Amino acid sequence: MANHSDHSHGHDEAHAHGSLKSYIVGFILSIVLTIIPLVVVLNHMLSQLPTVLIIMVTAVLQFVVQLFFFMHVRERQGNQPRWNVMALIFGLAIVLVVVSGSVWIMTYNGVGY
């Protein structure tokens, strides 16, 4: 009986990883999201602000592709809650607070002196 439960546990672990198709799709999306800002910057296609916006948007999309296609954030194992998603959201909230606080301090550091 222990063999059956070990076998089913191993079967669940096999499904916890992505398929070859999902890895190929993620790889192609990563390549495209890398080439887009590279072409825009190297060919001076846009002015500074739109170029920076293109870089930022493709960077965020690249982050999402990496999370979902390679790090399997959306997958859950068994009946466990999605702790990795909650930890990611908490980490992003901390990063947002630190970065926005740093920008605030750098922006208003010399005001009033």
UniProtKB/TrEMBL annotation:
Cell compartments where the protein resides: Cell membrane
Keyword Chaperone part of the UniProt annotation: no
Pfam families referenced in this protein's UniProt entry, alphabetically: COX4_pro
Keywords: Cell membrane, Electron transport, Membrane, Oxidoreductase, Transmembrane, Transmembrane helix, Transport
TM region(s), chain numbering: 23-46, 52-73, 85-106
InterPro entries assigned to the protein according to its UniProt record, in alphabetical order: Cyt_c_oxidase_su4_prok, Cyt_o_ubiqinol_oxidase_su4, Cytochrome_c_oxidase_bac_sub4
The keyword Magnesium is assigned to this record: no
Family named by the database record: Belongs to the cytochrome c oxidase bacterial subunit 4 family.
Name under which the protein is recorded: Cytochrome o ubiquinol oxidase subunit IV
